[in-house]
Specification:
This protein is α+β, with helices and mostly antiparallel strands. It has 5 helices and 10 strands; from the N terminus they run ββαβββαβαββββαα. It is 28% helix and 26% strand. A hairpin with a 5-residue loop joins strand 3 and strand 4. The N and C termini lie far apart (42 Å).
């Protein structure tokens, strides 16, 4: 059940709307991406109040993943909730199939949230993906929630660097279709690669990344999720020792 808090924010656990088999072999994974890409909805994204981000850290052998979700309230970047999950990865890293390595853990930690974020930021691609169905699109469709991909590298070519100033961007294109943007979040710093995942558009995706980026290259919710995931990993290493 979803309710409304006294602050006007939605609460209630997120529910996965579609079942999905994360263990399919790569050839079937590609087909699944193509099929599910038809479910992606691109639409304007209203300025968010609650922004969540999820990141995953890995054990040294890459066999265990440590996922962390952080929900922040804008504009003061107050952390209102954190959740974590860990488990076996079970799927090797393959370019373009990141969702099959990280999706199960990401879904697990999303289900633990007891407030409904207005948008979820993910360190991966949205529709700026060879099959227009990266990690952010995948989780957005499964949970029917607004998602944005904000990655440190791109699966889609960009022909030119964005301008030097914060907010400058250049398009990520496949053929003649603009799927995302290489976005400068800080002057003189490498761009991030932004694309809508689900229930967002490119303008809204760029706006939310800029609204959540402060002194660093990456949005603050992603930075905090990354920090928490690494702390969880360190704790797991200490317990094994």
């Amino acid at each position: 059940m979803i309710g409304i808090s006294s602050d006007g924010e939605s609460f209630g656990r997120l529910r996965q709307q579609l079942s999905f088999d994360w263990s399919v072999p790569p050839a079937r994974a590609v087909l699944a991406q193509r099929d599910h890409a038809e479910r992606v909805v691109l639409c304007p994204l209203s300025p968010p109040r609650l922004v969540a981000a999820i990141d995953i850290a890995y054990s040294e052998n890459g066999k265990v993943g440590y996922a962390a979700a952080v929900v922040m309230r804008l504009p003061k970047f107050k952390i209102v909730q954190t959740q974590t999950a860990q488990g076996a990865t079970g799927y090797p890293y393959r370019p373009g199939l990141l969702a099959f390595r990280e999706g199960r853990l990401t879904a697990s930690v999303l289900k633990k949230l007891t407030c409904r974020p207005d948008v979820v930021l993910l360190d991966g691609a949205g529709v700026a993906h060879p099959r227009r169905f990266g990690l952010a699109s995948h989780l957005g469709v499964l949970f029917d929630i607004a998602t944005v991909g904000c990655a440190k590298s791109s699966l889609v070519p960009h022909s030119e660097e964005p301008g030097p100033n914060r907010g400058d961007f250049s398009p990520l294109m496949l053929k003649t279709e603009v799927l995302g943007a290489a976005l400068r979040t800080r002057p003189g710093v490498k761009p991030v690669f932004v694309s809508p995942g689900h229930r967002a558009d490119l303008t809204g995706a760029i706006d939310v990344v800029l609204a959540t980026t402060t002194r660093y290259r990456l949005p603050e919710p992603i930075r905090q999720a990354h920090r928490l995931a690494n702390e969880l990993r360190a704790e797991g290493i200490r317990r094994r020792d």
